Amino acid sequence: MTNADPRAARRADEELDEFQSAERHPEYRVDLERIRFSPFFSRLSAVTQVISQTGAGLAVHNRLTHSVKVAAVARAIAVHLSTDQGETGRAVADLGGCHPVVVQAAASAHDLGHPPFGHLGEQTLDRIAREKFRLAEGFEGNAQTFRILTRLDEHDQPGVGLNLTAAVRAAVLKYPWLRGHGGGRRGGSRKFSAYVTDVDDMRGALAAYPLIEEGQQTIECSIMDIADDIAYSLHDLDDFYRAGLLNQATISSEFRAWRRDLTELRALDAPALAIANRSPGHALELLWRRLEARDPWIADPDAFERAVAKVTEEVVDGLLAVPFDGSLASERALAGFTSEWIAHLQASVFVTREPDARSGHVSLDRRAWHEVAVLKFLHERFILDRPDLAVYQRGQASVLERLVDGFAAWIDDAHDVRRAPRRLIDFVDLATEDYLRVKRESPDLIDVTSEEEIRRRATGRGVIDYVASLTDAQATSLDGLLVGQTERLWDAGQGL
């Protein structure tokens, strides 16, 4: 079925059934349901957000609960903007529109590409892809999300992924460029949303938005991105507060020392700050220096100081001053705190027709932008830098390294490759098709001409695709099987 609206176009035509056709904008509802019914989406319930439930010993956010909450925050923002009758609404319409279901679908899908063990897994697979398989673009969770939606996951037709509309495909492109092509835009060369194998799909989706400049997010994507920031900054705080991991006295010392010693801290040069970064106040000043250097278009010292003051009052001296004890009263206090902050940040969103290269058409205002940066600082500084977490994560990195080595050796074993997991073989075959196609149609995107080397890299991409699709538990169980250290034969690799 051909649709005149390019945003609703799919890679392959298909007919909607009678129930779908009865809805308004059924094409976007179909996309949302395909994502929610995808095994890749279900898998997120067993993929680490920051620390795993096994490692934490309590119920913490996983990638699925995070995605559900991002979708809720994003939909509320989208409904508000899409119903605006003023200049904001006209700007939104002119720039391609803002459909709440498209935003919901993109928010639901945005973390599909995250591998086992959270950001640690992403960093490890990126290093392995570049060093072991000479894949210059390595591995990136956002690019993996797009690859899943357009290639690895399938609905009922081969070769077109879930066959989603252009609107939803474009809305997951947080960094709509290849690795190293971001220039001065958000994420620069570190972040990107498509591998060379999937660049045509990226360009095809973005073509439905002719007024969006190259390298810029669509309106719907910007909303998803902001909702992700809001949820991340608050829900990780929720987890670590519940777990008792945020030491109120230590955090208070950091915030009070920064405000007390601000004049002296501002006088220090960067090396002196870095050397003394464990001293109270220094880490917050380093945060400010990073914001100022990276985002001069919005970073403002007065706004940063006000953000520190607000977080000090409402988080450090407010929420954290009373330890979470599991009582109904503590649950009510935490729920009220989170709801108020989400409402405040949602109300701080605005639309601009000509955003800075480091921003999107939809963004947080200056005040809220600084507040989110300071909220993120809490768990980045006081959780992610913990030595005990570092030891735990190094062990997880070793699991991924052994899995990649083991599966790559299996694929290269001509005598036993036929017994390798079927999905692993399928992913290697898909990657081989993709790289040979790129070599044939866009040779400038690949830095080698040897078919043997291209097949080697395709094997690497297929193996990485496979390992990245595992849950935390599957990765751990398969590691035990491959090194012969488990007797749990029949349940360790279910569904692989």
SSE run: HHHHHHHHHHHHHHHHHHEEHHHHH
| Helix-strand category | mainly alpha
Named at the architecture level, the CATH assignment of the largest domain is: Orthogonal Bundle
Main sheet record: 2 strands, antiparallel
Overall number of structural domains = 3
Beta-strand residue percentage: under 5%
Task: Give me the number of helical elements.
Answer: 23
The radius of gyration over CA amounts to 23 Å
- Work out the number of β strands: 2
Low-confidence stretches: none
CATH topology name of the largest domain: Hypothetical protein af1432
Overall average pLDDT: 90
CATH homology superfamily name of the largest domain = Hypothetical protein af1432
The portion of residues assigned to helices is: 55-70%
Using the coordinates above, name the CATH class of the largest domain: Mainly Alpha
In the sheet with the most strands, the strands line up as 1-2
Structure, described:
The protein has 23 helices and 2 strands. By secondary structure, it is mainly α. The protein has 3 domains: 6-220, Hypothetical protein af1432 (Orthogonal Bundle); 247-385, no CATH class; 393-482, no CATH class. Strands 1-2 form a two-stranded antiparallel ribbon. The longest helix is centred in the last third of the chain and has 25 residues, at 387-411. The protein is globular.
